[in-house]
UniProtKB/TrEMBL annotation:
Organism per entry: Commensalibacter melissae
Keyword Ribosomal protein annotated: no
Reactions the enzyme catalyzes: tRNA(His) + L-histidine + ATP = L-histidyl-tRNA(His) + AMP + diphosphate + H(+)
EC assignment: 6.1.1.21
Protein name: Histidine--tRNA ligase
GO cellular component: cytoplasm
Keyword terms, alphabetized: Aminoacyl-tRNA synthetase, ATP-binding, Cytoplasm, Ligase, Nucleotide-binding, Protein biosynthesis
Length: 416
């Protein structure tokens, strides 16, 4: 019988990988809570229209990458390829547009049918944050600062650079869009097939094309900075001043874009060279019309998302796990006392476990593999006297401790 393999593009998280993954998620949750964000948990699938409206039918995600299926009732459903659309849908369907601003953190699996690559699978995980109902550039700066705070806490900010751009307001974007169409029409025959298809519908997407023939044409393409209205320019200036106040360094990158009409003003990416060509680890931007696409009012918002797998790959180390205690028994006859000791320690929030098989040597080998710092040895004599032999697995020191003194003695030992 052949061994069942995981589906291509999926990945089991076990051992240190699972610990790193959980560390990234928990660190992000802890830090976003310092900024007043609350976690929302939305379904992993939605009506297909939720994503088709939010991502646009010319995007690669909608046209090539979504996992879409028809359920038994005939409805078209899609596994979520990103988190923002579900948050905006939840804002509307839970009647929360009247209580703005809303500060939302989310975390969980996303699904895209794309070529598996380093740090990116077809089922991958994201953390993300959305600040819904604000218009000030200071909010954008604070969101970027929160992302930077998470990277700092993970110990990976030295390997990451913040790149920043503006898409201006609607009037700026319309003028820029027309200029882009006019320019790219003059070189249409030199564009890739995808970019030729995007030329009329979504010319901004040509700017972030990865095709070498498209990249070669960008040096002479019009830039947003030449089409900004006074209002857009003021927002851009205030954002950069606010980032300076937060002491967050950045470099301007005029080719960071979002191709959909409801994106405006701020767009940004934290990028690294440590993960090959796909170097973006946390990215976001300001948007204004997505909530309206879900049937709600026009709600301005700023958000970002980050790939957990990519962040985990950049970790140098994670904090050492709390010191743990291993229970070692000399016979099955003392299991009752061993269980009593286990529950006593866990009640006092001391990590403790035991194995259910093996002689003394095998049990000690197991304790060392589990990286326990202390072993509690229990034989029939110890059970009769209601004591344990407390063995420090680092120093080798061993002492007898009465059961009623065990918790206090362990707290002292584990604190060292």
């Amino acid at each position: 019988m052949s061994v069942v393999k995981p589906v291509r593009g999926t990945h089991d998280l076990i051992g240190d990988e699972a610990k790193n993954h959980q560390y990234v998620m928990q660190t992000a949750k802890n830090i976003t809570s310092l900024y007043g964000f609350e976690e929302w948990i939305t379904p992993v699938f939605e009506e297909t229209g939720v994503f088709a409206r939010s991502l646009g039918d010319t995007s690669d995600i909608v046209s090539k990458e979504m996992y879409t299926f028809q359920d038994r009732g005939g409805d078209s459903l899609t596994l979520r390829p990103e988190g923002t659309a579900g948050i905006c849908r939840a804002l509307v369907t839970n009647a929360l547009t009247q209580t703005l601003p809303q500060k939302v953190f989310y975390a969980g699996p996303m699904f895209r049918y794309e070529r598996p690559q380093k740090g990116r699978y077809r089922q991958f995980h994201q953390i993300g944050a959305e600040l819904l109902g604000t218009t000030t550039p200071f909010a954008d700066a604070e969101m970027i600062a929160m992302g930077q705070h998470i990277l700092n806490a993970l110990g990976i900010s030295d390997n990451v650079v913040l790149e920043l751009n503006t898409l201006g307001d609607l009037a700026s974007r319309q003028a820029w869009r027309e200029a882009l169409i006019a320019y790219f029409k003059t070189v249409k025959s030199e564009l890739s097939e995808d970019s030729q298809n995007r030329l009329e519908k979504n010319p901004l997407r040509i700017l972030d094309s990865k095709a070498a023939q498209d990249r070669a044409l960008l040096d002479h393409a019009p830039l947003m900075k030449d089409y900004m209205t006074p209002t857009a320019l003021e927002f851009w200036d205030r954002l950069r001043k606010a980032l300076d106040q937060f002491k967050i360094p950045f470099r301007e990158n005029h080719y960071i874009v979002r191709g959909l009409d409801y994106y405006s003003h701020t767009v940004f990416e934290f990028v690294t060279t440590k993960l090959g060509s796909q170097g973006t680890v946390l990215a976001g931007g300001r948007y204004e019309g997505l909530v309206a696409e879900m049937g709600g009012p026009s709600v301005p918002a700023i958000g970002w998302a980050a790939g957990v797998e990519r962040l985990a790959l950049l970790l140098n180390s994670i904090p050492v796990q709390p010191k743990s205690v291993a229970i070692i028994v000399f016979s099955d006859a003392v299991h009752e006392m061993a269980f009593t000791v286990l529950q006593l320690l866990r009640t006092h929030k001391i990590a403790a476990e035991m194995t259910y098989k093996g002689n003394f040597r095998k049990q000690m080998e197991w304790a060392n593999k589990r990286k326990a710092s202390i072993a509690l040895l229990i034989g029939e004599d110890e059970a009769t006297k209601q004591v344990v032999q407390l063995k420090d697995l680092n120093s080798g020191e061993q002492v007898e401790v009465a059961l009623h003194d065990l918790v206090s003695q362990l707290i002292l030992k584990l604190a060292k």
